[in-house]
Each structure stands twice: as C-alpha cells, then as structure tokens.
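Tokens in:
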C-alpha cells in the first residue's frame, strides 16, 4: 500500500486521531481547566472590548470581570453546599413520605384491577436515587471549582494577550487570509452562542426558581441553579434538571404538585428553547440535532461534566477545522444542520 494512496492517508489520520484523543483523555485533569479557561476568556472578551470604547483601562475591566466570576463561584458553591446538607438531613422524612405516596397510588390502581408490588417499586424509586443525577453533576462541577485559581490565572493571561493574538496568528499561519477567516468566524460564533445561551439559561433558572418557590418546593434555589447550569447541555439538560425537582414535589405534596412542577419545566423550556433562543440566535451554530446529541455523549465521555457543557462549542471547532480544507469539507457538511458550510 503506497503512502500517498487515499486509504493510507485515511488510516494515518485515524491513527493520529486515536493518539490525540487518548492523550486528551489521559490528560483530562489538565485539559479540562484549559478548555474552560479558553471559553470563559472568549465569553468575557466582548465585555472588556465594549468597556474599552469608553476609555476604561483594560486592566480595570479584566479585574472587574474576574471579581464577578469569583463572587459568583463562591456564592454558587455556598448555596449548593448548604442545600445538599439540608437535603441529606431531610432524606429520612422524604423516604417516609414517598412510601405513603406510593401506597396511595398502588391502592388507587388496585381499584381498577391493576395490581402492582408497591414494596418493589418503593425500593427502587428512592429520593436519593433521583437526586444522584444532580449530585453527580454538581460533584463534577465541584472538581472544576477546586481548580478555580488555576482557571482564573489562565483567563487573566488570555485576556491580556487577546489584543496581540490575532497579529501573531497572522504571522504564524502559512495561509493567514484563509485560516484567519475561519478563526474569526469561530470566535464570533462562540461569543454569540455563549452570550445568548447564558442569557437564556439565566432566564430559565430564574423562572424555574420562582415557579418552585410559589409551589413551596424544598431547596428551590438549588433546582433553579441546576436548571441554569444544565440548560447549557443541549437536548437533555433540561430533562435531567427536572427529575430531582419533580421528585421532591411528588414526595412533599403528591402527584398533582409533581405534575405542576413538571408542567412548569415543560412550559419554560418550550418557550425558552423553541421561541426565545432561536429568535435570538437565528441560524445558531449550524449543527444538526443528531450531531449535537452525539457530541454531548462524546465530549462528556472525553472531558466529563465540563465536556458536556462545552459540547456544542467544541464540536463547532471541529466543524470549522473541517471546513478549512477542501478534502474534509464533506465531513463538515455531514455535521451541519442544513447540508451547507459557512465558509
């Protein structure tokens, strides 16, 4: 087999890809803070560039942005920690209430000749089991927050270097006119995506929190924060966020309240995800729904919780890289939502 044959090239590329992915997987403890720092810096750069138009020194803008990140991070960590402690203290009460609710449901079903083993169902549907979805996600984010100092330092250096980076890329790249076009488009796309997604996620979390507070659901602030964070995960994030909140509503007040909580999640995510977000984002990132879902699984396996949050921007990096070369454009077309590239 000749080295220049198409088959040889494909095998070499696949072998290199496997080596790179294995390296990223092995070095995930380093790569996760690095990737997160890149996207935080990209998301923060529009704020800094905007304030610079009014004569605000760059160092002052960066200090202000970093201060906001630190305050938000510590408030989030304190809120989640307190809510988790309260949940563990209330777990025996939830267990008792859950048994009563299931006994009522089993009794109602038996009136219609539907016989179910209530003890077997109650043994498997434990509040702690439903809560494990939320705790696993939060623990993953907690691991990221443990590297907060490293992430912030990296973000600071990236923001200070942001002005000179385009000039150096022009010098470093062999074909700057072509490749800088793709890089600029990527930065604009990610800036737009992260900004709009953050606004929509904040709105989602706020409305969910108010809805659950009015209903009197325990730990409503925790479920609101969870809805905000998981809204970054496309397709299934809102479903995962709804499970523990609906479960707690069921344990506290019964089937009707659980249905109302589920209805709240459904209405908010339908309006935000299908009306508000598409109207703000327009064409969006140009990825098909199937690709978005598969990228969620892939990046989650490769980088963990952060990989799930950044699955769409990371996949967009791959798509733009494929668009930059004629021989790989067909793969970019397969990733796109409409069969078109943006080049």
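Residues out:
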């Amino acid at each position: 087999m000749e080295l220049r044959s198409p088959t040889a090239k494909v095998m070499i590329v696949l072998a290199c890809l496997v080596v790179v992915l294995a390296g990223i997987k092995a070095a995930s403890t380093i790569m996760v803070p690095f990737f997160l720092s890149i996207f935080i810096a990209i998301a923060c750069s529009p704020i800094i560039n905007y304030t610079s138009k009014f004569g605000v020194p760059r160092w002052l803008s960066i200090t202000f942005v970093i201060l906001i990140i630190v305050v938000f991070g510590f408030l989030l960590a304190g809120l989640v920690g307190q809510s988790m402690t309260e949940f563990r203290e209330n777990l025996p009460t939830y267990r008792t209430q859950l048994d009563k609710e299931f006994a009522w449901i089993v009794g109602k079903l038996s009136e219609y000749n539907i016989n179910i083993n209530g003890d077997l169902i109650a043994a498997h549907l434990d509040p702690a089991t439903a809560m494990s979805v939320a705790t696993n996600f939060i623990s993953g984010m907690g691991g990221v927050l443990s590297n907060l100092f490293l992430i912030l330092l990296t973000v600071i250096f990236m923001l200070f270097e942001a002005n000179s980076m385009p000039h150096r890329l022009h010098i470093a790249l062999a074909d700057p006119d072509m490749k800088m076009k793709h890089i600029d488009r990527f930065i604009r796309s990610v800036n737009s995506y992260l900004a709009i997604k953050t606004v929509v996620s904040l709105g989602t979390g706020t409305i969910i929190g108010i809805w659950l507070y009015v209903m009197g659901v325990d730990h409503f602030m925790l479920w609101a924060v969870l809805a905000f964070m998981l809204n970054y995960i496309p397709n299934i994030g809102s479903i995962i966020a709804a499970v523990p909140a609906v479960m707690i509503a069921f344990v506290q007040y019964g089937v009707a309240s659980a249905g109302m909580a589920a209805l709240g999640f459904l209405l908010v995510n339908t309006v935000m995800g299908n009306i508000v977000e598409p109207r703000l984002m327009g064409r969006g990132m140009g990825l098909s729904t199937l690709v978005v879902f598969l990228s969620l699984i892939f990046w989650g396996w490769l980088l963990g919780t952060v990989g799930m949050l950044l699955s769409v921007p990371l996949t967009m990096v791959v798509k733009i890289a494929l668009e930059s070369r004629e021989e790989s454009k067909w793969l970019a077309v397969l990733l796109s939502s409409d069969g078109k590239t943006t080049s």
